[in-house]
Write a structure and sequence with these properties.
There is one protein chain. By secondary structure, this protein is α+β, with helices and mostly antiparallel strands. It is built from seven helices and four strands. It folds into three domains: 96 residues; 79 residues; 92 residues. A hairpin with a 3-residue loop joins strand 1 and strand 2. The radius of gyration is 64 Å and the shape is rod-shaped.
């Protein structure tokens, strides 16, 4: 009995979709050796066309594995036509067919110099475009940063200008207040130091001026300067009132000035009492 061999052919082709073939047949060893020889692709092509009529495939995408020293009890299975002796009997075949959608194998093709140059050009162009975008992004950020700094500086300048204006106005107010205070004190001193009082009319005019000045005082413990000048003006008023009593010939006018003196004197006394009470309260709270 001639030696037998098992031949397994594997590969992928197109037959109503993608098909993966894994087919094993038993044949004479002398025939099986053709699957691994120099003409193996021709033998594989005949094998596939015999078992899978109408399949589209590339023989080079198929492989064949041969196992020798296989015994067989079927003496007629390998007899007959040449193809039957090569491809074996269907009675002894073992077949597994897996149908699935697969991507066809694509043979790598060697790129031409022009294609390589085109790829290099595209790569360099992509890098150039990326660099341009990065530079444009940096420029845009620089413009935004410069605009922010400019606006920030303008805001600071405006704030400094407003603050300086406020300081100037406050300085002017303080200066005016100081000048007014000096003028007021000078006027008070002139009223206190004025002694050229001879007639009743002159004395009455001076008393009226003293009343006007005294009425403008804010008397409290915190306004010591005010209290000082207020007391001096009241004393001056009292002196002028005594002179008026001597020279006045108008009883009604004299009564008026006496009444006003009592008012300003009582107001001053009341202010001192209130100040004393406040000082006691402050001491008790401590």
């Amino acid at each position: 009995m001639e030696k037998q061999a098992k031949v397994t052919v594997k590969g992928t082709g197109q037959l109503n979709g993608s098909k993966t073939i894994n087919k094993t047949v038993t044949m004479d060893a002398s025939m099986a050796k053709h699957f691994t020889g120099g003409s193996r692709y021709d033998v594989i092509e005949d094998f596939v066309r015999t078992h899978y009529p109408g399949m589209k495939f590339n023989p080079k995408n198929f492989s064949a594995n041969v196992i020798y020293n296989v015994s067989s009890n079927d003496n007629t299975s390998n007899k007959g036509s040449f193809l039957g002796r090569i491809f074996g009997s269907n009675n002894d075949e073992e077949e597994e067919i897996e149908e699935r959608v697969t991507k066809p194998k694509v043979e790598k093709t060697k790129l031409t110099e022009e294609q390589k140059e085109l790829l290099r050009f595209r790569d360099e162009e992509d890098k150039r475009q990326a660099k341009l975008k990065d530079e444009e992004y940096q420029r845009a950020n620089k413009i935004k940063e410069d605009e922010f700094n400019r606006q920030h500086k303008l805001n600071l300048d405006e704030l400094n200008k407003i603050e300086q204006q406020r300081i100037n106005k406050e300085t002017e107010r303080n200066l005016l207040k100081s000048n007014n205070e000096l003028s007021r004190i000078e006027k008070i001193n002139s009223l206190i130091d004025f002694h050229n009082l001879n007639s009743a009319q002159e004395i009455e005019t001076h008393l009226e001026n003293l009343l006007i000045s005294i009425s403008g005082f804010s008397l409290s413990k915190e306004h010591k300067n005010e209290n000082f000048y207020n007391d001096k003006m009241i004393n001056k008023y009292k002196i002028c009132l005594e002179k008026l009593k001597v020279v006045s010939q108008n009883p009604e006018r004299l009564k008026y000035f006496i009444k006003e003196y009592k008012k300003i004197r009582n107001k001053r006394v009341l202010g001192k009492i209130i100040g004393f009470i406040k000082s006691l309260d402050a001491s008790n709270q401590q």
